[in-house]
Amino acid sequence: MGLWQQVAVTASECVDSVFGEVMQIIPMVAGRYSAPMADPDRMIRTVTGIYYEKPIDKQMLDESPGMGRALASELKVEELSVNIQTSALYTAGVLDLPQKGDRIVRTEIVGTPIFEVTSTKPDSAVRTILFVVKVAA
User: pLDDT digit string (tens) for 32-45?
Assistant: First the structure.
């Protein structure tokens, strides 16, 4: 491991120790005619992650005939993500990224919603970003 990789790992561990919280990744499988259910072929994992809400202003465009593409209105939305050290996502020496539809549960705070993974994005260093949506309170 190179010097910069070691520095990135150390920095990542420091960030987890200050901002991290215990979370569970619950693998899910879509039911053919039912709601998603726990995937029996993949195990539940407990990891330390950082939950992040980023406010975003989205512009809506009016594309009706004769209106061109004039700005119609603005929406206030939030981009929700969970940031996890990539090394915590290895299972038996193989990187096992959470899949679309898997659930994330923040276990340290009572009453927090359950989140569903919509996409994953490993960064170029040592962390993986999971983009999520709230599915239950």
Answer: 888 889 999 999 99
Tokens 């010097």 correspond to what residue?
3
Residue 94 identity (one-letter amino acid): V
Task: Name, in order, each residue with C-beta under 8 angstroms of 91's C-beta and a sequence gap of 6 or more.
Answer: 43, 45
Residue-wise over 38-51: b if at least 16 C-beta within 10 A, else e? ebeebeebebbbbb
Q: Are 98 and 84 in contact (CB under 8 A)?
A: no
List, in sequence order, the alpha helices (H) in 1-135. Answer: 3-19
The burial class, CB within 10 Å (0-12 / 13-18 / 19+), for 81 is buried
61, 109 contact by CB (below 8 A): no
